UniProtKB/TrEMBL annotation:
Gene3D superfamilies: Tetratricopeptide repeat domain. PPR repeats lie at residues 224-258, 259-293, 294-328, 402-436, 437-471, 472-506, 509-543. The keyword Transit peptide applies. Belongs to the PPR family. P subfamily. The keyword Transit peptide applies. This is Pentatricopeptide repeat-containing protein. It holds the Pfam family PPR. Keywords: Repeat, Transit peptide.
Length: 550
């Protein structure tokens, strides 16, 4: 090393890296700017080359493993400088061996610099298609014999597995290393084992994951709840519920108690596999084992039952969980209410109403969404006149209507021709801070149409435009039908022209063409209706509701 300090590189004003060692030994390095200076020195040493060709060839020989290890030992209290020196030696042509890697790994371990160690291993892995097993075996044997701090080998193994993932290498490479080093007695921490399991699981390697899990048990590693959860989640995501159940049974046999995350994972996966019988059993087991069943656990199962229209089972589960003290919420009730209303029959609708009453008795507030589902149920049953009554009742119960709920109420008032009440409701919306949108105005226009008041319907349309609301095909159709119903054919034609100018699509779904042809016929303008019909037939346009090409 002394020869290196007197080399031509130094004599030609290039500041050699190792010249700062005396300074390092005497100075506590607290200033980060020094590290930047040190890095600059390293770059300078690489870029300024005044040595002869002969010196270039002999220069790498001036550093040997013993010297590098000795210098690393001097820098043990300055790990950032140590890693910089380690890298610069390499850039100057020195080839690191097992001893120097052992030295730097020991330094990074004692200073808990795992990210730096991951980077170091990543570079090593990147140098080879697959670092030789002999190299890694020798390295970890050297680490175990180095007399370093307890946990040095485990610390290094943790970093090594993370390096494989950082380098985006195939999980099988990390697995091979795990098997190799494990057989030599070098075992990673439980946290690192779980990391490796997740690495393999994310890659979707079924058999490999199972093999790794079994080998961990074979090595005597005491796996925990999270280990089993990783394996269960993998099988459940693959819809292999039988295998997931086997893992659950293994966990119970091992005496490992599932935690809240495990239960949530298992419940979600089993429900995704539509094994609701098992999910109900799991809920019961949670209660039996004294675990707190949260609404979140319950709702996963409950939502699945409702989605599959298993309403009887859902109702029974609701009562069981309620009796066992599970704190139910409006989501639980809302799902069952929604499912019953969707059936469209009076029996299920009455069940939905009973659930609403049960909610209020328990002090659980009815949400606007639940109220909307009840109004939808009334609409399906044709009980339009009751919609307004229920709307008012919900407000008395403390429900604050949203736009959707207001829209249902307006639609009901429009059908019953109660336009005065509808106008009051529009004002109520504004007073509550909700500005009516296109759908609300369309309901108003429809209400005036139903009353036969085409001019008021037109006035609402104009007001809508003034507010900057853009009518859609449904809005235009409602106003068109109002004009035709009142024999205002000229206004209808003007409105139809506006639709075309505005680029409103006259689509088959909304039956705009059929509406116009029917309006012409009823208004005594059969010739115009026939002309439009022929044009449409030539274009191949189909008109719904029985109007089409013969």
């Amino acid at each position: 090393m002394y020869r290196y300090l007197k080399s031509e590189l130094i004599s030609n004003r290039s500041i050699g890296l190792l010249r700062v060692f005396p300074f390092l030994e005497k100075t506590q390095l607290k200033n980060k700017s020094f590290f930047r200076f040190f890095s600059a020195v390293a770059v300078l040493s690489q870029n300024l080359d005044y040595s002869s060709g002969e010196d270039k060839q002999s220069f790498p020989l001036r550093l040997n493993s013993t010297q590098v290890c000795s210098n690393l030992q001097k820098l043990r209290t300055n790990p950032s400088v140590a890693i910089a020196y380690f890298k610069d030696c390499e850039s100057l042509g020195f080839c690191h061996d097992i001893s120097t890697y052992t030295a730097i790994i020991s330094i990074l371990s004692s200073s808990n610099r795992k990210s730096r160690l991951v980077s170091l291993f990543s570079n090593l892995i990147s140098l080879y298609t697959n670092p030789g097993h002999q190299i890694l075996s020798s390295l970890f044997f050297s680490l175990s014999q180095s007399g370093g701090e307890p946990g040095l080998v485990s610390f290094a193994l943790d970093a090594l597995f993370k390096a494989y993932r950082t380098c985006r290498r195939a999980p099988q490479e990390a697995v091979d290393v795990f098997f190799l080093l494990g057989k030599l007695g070098f075992l990673p921490t439980l946290q690192s084992c779980n990391f490796l399991l997740s690495f393999v699981a994310d890659a979707g390697k079924d058999q490999t994951l199972k093999h790794v899990f079994e080998q961990m048990n074979g090595f005597g590693i005491n796996l925990d709840t999270y280990s089993f959860t990783i394996l269960m989640k993998f099988y459940l995501n693959a819809k292999q519920h039988s295998e997931a159940i086997e893992v659950w049974q293994q966990m119970e046999k091992a005496g490992i108690k599932p935690d809240s995350v495990t239960y949530m994972t298992f419940l979600s996966g089993i429900c995704a596999c539509k094994r609701y019988d098992l999910s109900c059993d799991i809920l019961q087991a949670m209660v039996t084992n004294g675990m707190q069943v949260s609404p979140k656990h319950f709702n996963i199962v409950f939502s699945g039952l409702c989605k599959e229209s298993k309403l009887e089972e859902a109702g029974k589960l609701l009562q069981i969980m309620s009796k066992q003290g599970v704190q139910l919420d409006n989501y639980s009730y809302g799902r069952l209410i929604e499912a019953n209303c969707a059936k469209g029959n009076l029996e299920n609708f009455n069940m939905a109403l009973d659930l609403c009453r049960e909610m209020t008795d328990r002090g659980i507030g009815i949400t606007p969404r639940i109220a909307t589902r009840i109004l939808q149920g009334l609409d399906k049953l044709g009980l339009n006149e009751d919609i307004w009554l229920f709307f008012e009742k919900f407000k008395e119960l403390g429900v604050v209507p949203d736009r959707v709920l207001y829209n249902f109420a307006l639609n009901a008032l429009g059908r019953s021709r109660s336009t005065e009440e509808a106008m009051k409701l529009i004002q109520e919306m504004r007073n509550s801070g909700l500005e009516p949108d296109r759908k609300h105005y369309t309901c108003l226009i429809g209400g005036f149409r139903n009353r036969g008041d085409a001019m008021s319907a037109q006035a609402m349309f104009v007001e809508m435009l003034k507010l900057g609301l853009k009518p859609d095909t449904v809005t235009y159709n409602v106003l068109l039908s109002s004009f035709f119903s009142n024999s205002l054919n000229d206004k209808a034609i003007v409105l139809l022209g506006r639709m075309i100018v505005q680029g409103i699509e006259l689509n088959v779904k909304e039956n705009t063409y059929g509406l116009v042809i029917e309006g012409f016929c009823k208004g005594g303008r059969a010739s115009e209706a026939e002309l439009l019909f022929k044009v449409l037939r030539q274009r191949g346009s189909l008109i719904v509701q029985g109007i089409g090409a013969e």
